[in-house]
Write a structure and sequence with these properties.
It is found in: Membrane. By secondary structure, the chain is mainly alpha-helical. It has helices at 3-12, 17-43, 50-56, 62-67, 71-74, 82-103, 105-129, 131-134, 144-157, 173-186, 193-214, 221-235, 267-280, 287-297, and strands at residues 58-59, 139-140, 162-165, 169-172, 241-244, 247-250.
Length: 299
């Protein structure tokens, strides 16, 4: 099977959001490498790609941003340095796997998108309100704000979950998240203040996203609604409708708590899951069972 077919298959699969986000970042990275190389060969200009970048990156000037609103999302898929994209993708994979396992694909995508928007908004505000940055027009690109949102969401969701780090050993992810935030704060007076400020915007969003979800409010519902609309537009599929008693009605939604929160599983289900853990261990649980166990913990 060709690489093109592999890519097409990855994007056609349902419940494959994490791999799709990773793949999008890689494809854009490769696309800019090819663009820079071709433009350099044709024009001998090493910065020939900058006009394209300026149309996809977030400008710090509000007036320019108003004419390029799409940059609030597109900037979060752009990288130029190998180590930059490598660390972002590794963190997205490690922490995104946790978020996806417990909250599902749709909320992972919502986190990524909202983290990008929060990071961009805080960046623009800082570069227009803080005197140290006010007279320094710049552009913002990279997935770091989105990835930081995912990291803080995972740490807020599962603070005592541990990762084994080389030369250090097991570390609870709440401490990893704390280090990420502290490094971003410390880096504001360094060489990339805009990026560090965007990280903090993503971090705040990730924390609030989980806290609001636990309180019964899903901040990602607008993102999911837009995604559903785009999917219907692209595929031409109408909303699913059923006929009952001779009248066409919208298919009822699955049982869910008020305001888009986390549905609480029945106690009998939880007892069965706990019995399974006692027999076979936590790792024997399915993705759905882990999600039910987490939702039950929010009672």
């Amino acid at each position: 099977m060709s690489i093109a077919n592999d890519i097409r298959t990855a994007f056609s699969k349902r419940d494959n959001a994490l791999n799709q986000l990773l793949l999008l970042n890689v494809l854009v990275f490769i696309g800019f490498i090819l663009l820079r190389t071709v433009l350099f060969i044709l024009t001998k200009d090493r910065n020939g790609h900058l006009p394209v970048l300026e149309w996809l990156a977030v400008p710090s000037v509000p007036g320019t941003l108003l004419t390029r609103p799409w940059t609030l999302l597109t900037y979060s898929f752009i990288h130029f340095e190998f180590l930059h994209i490598l660390f972002n993708l590794l963190n997205l994979y490690w922490f995104g796997s946790l978020v996806r396992e417990y909250l599902g694909d749709r909320r992972l995508v919502s986190l990524y998108v909202l983290g990008a928007c929060a990071g961009a908004i805080l960046y623009v505000l800082a570069f227009n309100l803080i005197p140290a940055f006010r007279d320094s027009p710049a552009i913002l690109y990279g997935a770091s704000a989105s990835v930081t949102a995912v990291i803080l969401a995972a740490a807020t969701l599962l603070p005592d979950y541990t990762f084994s780090i080389i030369l250090i050993g097991p570390v609870r992810i709440k401490y990893i998240a704390a280090v990420v935030v502290l490094l971003s704060i410390a880096g504001i007076n360094g060489g990339n203040p805009g990026g560090e400020i965007a990280h903090l915007g993503g971090a705040l969003l990730g924390f609030l996203f989980i806290k609001q979800l636990q309180a019964g409010r899903d901040l990602g519902r607008p993102v999911q609604a837009v995604g559903d609309w785009v999917t219907r537009l692209a595929t031409g599929r109408p909303n699913l409708r059923v006929t009952r008693g001779g009248a066409a009605t919208a298919a009822p939604a699955a049982a869910a708590p008020k305001k888009g929160g986390l549905a609480k599983p029945e106690q009998d289900e939880i007892d069965l899951i706990l019995d399974k853990i006692s027999r076979s261990g936590y790792e024997s649980l399915s993705k759905d069972e882990k999600q039910k166990l987490f939702r039950a913990s929010q009672r």
